[in-house]
């Protein structure tokens, strides 16, 4: 089967690294490299530079290129799943740069255009995927209007589409889409991280994306192993431990999704807590709350 190694690795923990910044506000390439190396040495097999936890929409084109290049250098034998998006031309340019830099897959961000037709959604992804047939393509689906038949139709014209990061908060919808698309045709990734992973694994997901993995790789990897082995009781024990952290990230419509991860890394001495607008730094009270969570994990 084409892209067999990539398929196998996507059925795991798909890490979305943060993008650390210097005091001057630039991408801190040296720290970024250390963070990626930390993930890979912990056992992570797929790293996604320029994901949403990496503040993709707050980076300019040169910065996204820099993040991708640093990742391919630091990833060793792990697979690099490069985030691309915006208009078709920009996404194609980024995908070709990812190919030239050594990435073996691209993740196409959900279109942010306010008017998305299902036919246009297919055309958008086909236009990008067809320009890099050597790369595996993962779709980032956050639109509940997308049907399984749309995914099947896209795969017919873009055979390098191999995975779906499904981030619609509805396990029933997920299972319906997966069945209608052809369950075995794609790798199905729970795209809403650890708290949703048990529910999505119960209805067919085989991997999940993670921002928490930046902070505590072994917790995320342990959760995956338990879900893979159908140890749902054990998985829910971990779920209870990480719930306060993930709920901090999800507060106010995920406003602090990145801020919590970066502040945790800062408290561990791994990077600065700086984020770019429209994200914000945590308050002193929130930082104290986060410290208590990290302490309960034996990290702080």
Short descriptors:
Aldolase_TIM, Dihydrodipicolinate synthase family protein, lyase, 12% strand, 8 strands, globular, alpha/beta, 8-stranded parallel barrel, DapA-like, 12 helices
Summarize this entry quickly:
Keywords: Lyase. With 300 residues, the protein is α/β, with parallel strands linked by helices.
Strand content: 5-15%
Assembly type: single chain
Number-wise, the strands total: 8
Tally of contiguous helical segments: 12
Could you describe the 3D structure shown?
- With 300 residues, the protein is an alpha/beta fold.
- 50% of the residues lie in helices and 12% in strands.
- It is built from 12 helices and 8 strands.
- An 8-stranded parallel barrel has the order 1-2-3-4-5-6-7-8, surrounded by 7 helices.
- α3 links the parallel β2 (46-47) and β3 (79-84).
- α8 packs parallel to α9, α10 (232-254) runs antiparallel to α12 (284-296) and α11 (257-267) packs across α12 (284-296).
- The protein is globular.
- The mean pLDDT is 97.
Please describe the topology of this protein.
Blueprint: H1 4-10, E1 13-15, H2 29-41, E2 46-47, H3 61-74, E3 79-84, H4 88-101, E4 105-108, H5 118-129, E5 136-141, H6 148-157, E6 161-166, H7 171-181, E7 187-190, H8 193-202, E8 207-210, H9 217-228, H10 232-254, H11 257-267, H12 284-296
Parallel strand pairs: 1-2, 1-8, 2-3, 3-4, 4-5, 5-6, 6-7, 7-8
Helix pairs in contact: 2-3, 3-4, 4-5, 5-6, 6-7, 8-9, 9-10, 10-11, 10-12, 11-12
């Amino acid at each position: 089967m084409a892209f067999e190694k990539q398929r196998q690795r996507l059925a795991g923990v798909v890490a979305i690294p943060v993008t650390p910044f210097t005091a001057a506000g630039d991408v801190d390439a040296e720290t970024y490299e250390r963070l990626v190396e930390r993930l890979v040495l912990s056992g992570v097999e797929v790293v996604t530079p320029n994901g949403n936890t990496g503040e993709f929409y707050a980076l300019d084109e040169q910065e996204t290129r820099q993040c991708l290049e640093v990742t391919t250098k630091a990833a060793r034998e792990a697979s690099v799943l490069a985030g691309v998006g915006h208009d078709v031309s920009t996404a194609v340019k980024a995908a070709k740069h990812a190919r030239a830099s050594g990435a073996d897959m691209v993740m196409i961000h959900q279109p942010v255009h306010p008017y998305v037709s299902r036919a246009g959604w297919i055309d958008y992804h086909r236009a990008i995927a067809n320009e890099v047939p050597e790369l595996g393509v993962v779709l980032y689906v956050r639109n509940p209007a997308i049907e399984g038949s749309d995914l099947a139709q896209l795969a017919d014209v873009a055979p390098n589409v191999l995975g779906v990061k499904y981030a619609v908060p509805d396990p029933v919808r997920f299972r319906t889409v997966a069945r209608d698309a052809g369950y075995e045709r794609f790798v199905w990734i729970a795209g809403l991280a650890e708290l949703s992973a048990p529910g999505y694994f119960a209805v067919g997901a085989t991997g999940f994306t993670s921002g928490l993995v930046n902070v505590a790789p072994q917790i995320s990897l342990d959760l995956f192993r338990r879900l893979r082995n159908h140890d749902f009781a054990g998985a829910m024990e971990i779920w209870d431990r990480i719930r306060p952290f993930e709920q901090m990230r999800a507060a106010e419509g995920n406003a602090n999704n990145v801020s919590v991860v970066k502040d945790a890394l800062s408290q561990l001495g791994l990077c600065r807590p700086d984020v770019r607008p429209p994200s914000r730094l945590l308050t002193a009270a929130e930082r104290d709350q986060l410290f208590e969570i990290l302490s309960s994990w034996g990290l702080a």
